[in-house]
Write a structure and sequence with these properties.
With 197 residues, the chain is mainly α. It has eleven helices and no strands.
Length: 197
């Protein structure tokens, strides 16, 4: 029988999943490379075989969440048609990305700007928020959404409702799935925002 040392079976993707779990549990600032190596069951040097360091793992993780969100804006239903319908599509898909990529979006929502990567992620989030706010503004201008609700407030409330999902949603648990949650968010938000026909 061979007594060769165990080979590192981690891939960049599996290592990233472990890192995201630990970052979400301990906070990014409270996580050391030692914590990551223990959680992964591999040596610190094995981690460095895959990445330059902890911040690279953070960047990969928040990039995954941001890429999912920005991809929504490129979808046909987000680019064509009346602004209110595009906004509803974006809202529905934001919930879909959040529920499908829950650990990654959770981490994105928890960055505080303490590192270059966190500052970059926060700037990208603001850019996404501005694009959604622009859809709100266009839908109000079209007369499809109420003009008496301030756009920034409506946008923040919508994001607040969606972002709060990370606090209670558990994939695979009993209860609503991502699609049902998206339906509920769209119904609740737009029933109060749409103008009367």
């Amino acid at each position: 029988m061979s007594t060769a040392p165990r080979r590192d079976t981690y891939t960049p993707e599996t290592l990233l999943a472990v890192a995201v779990r630990v970052f979400n549990e301990r906070g990014y600032d409270g996580t050391s490379m030692e914590h990551l190596s223990k959680a992964a069951g591999i040596s610190k040097s094995s981690i460095y075989h895959h990445v330059a360091g902890k911040e690279e793992l953070l960047r990969r993780a928040v990039s995954r969440a941001l890429d999912g969100l920005f991809a929504i804006l490129d979808e046909q239903h987000a680019r064509e048609g009346r602004a209110v319908n595009r906004l509803e599509h974006v809202t529905r898909r934001m919930v879909g990305v959040l529920t499908a990529e829950l650990p990654y979006v959770t981490l994105l929502l928890r960055v505080r700007g303490n590192t270059t990567t966190e500052q970059w992620a926060m700037e990208r989030r603001r850019e996404f928020d501005h694009q959604v706010a622009a859809l709100f503004k266009a839908a109000v201008a079209d007369g499809d959404l109420r003009a008496d609700v301030e756009i920034r407030l409506a946008t923040r409330l919508l994001f607040g409702m969606i972002n709060s999902i990370v606090e209670w949603y558990r994939p695979g648990g009993k209860g609503m799935d991502g699609e049902q949650i998206a339906d509920a968010v769209v119904q609740l938000a737009f029933a109060g925002l749409r103008t009367e026909d």
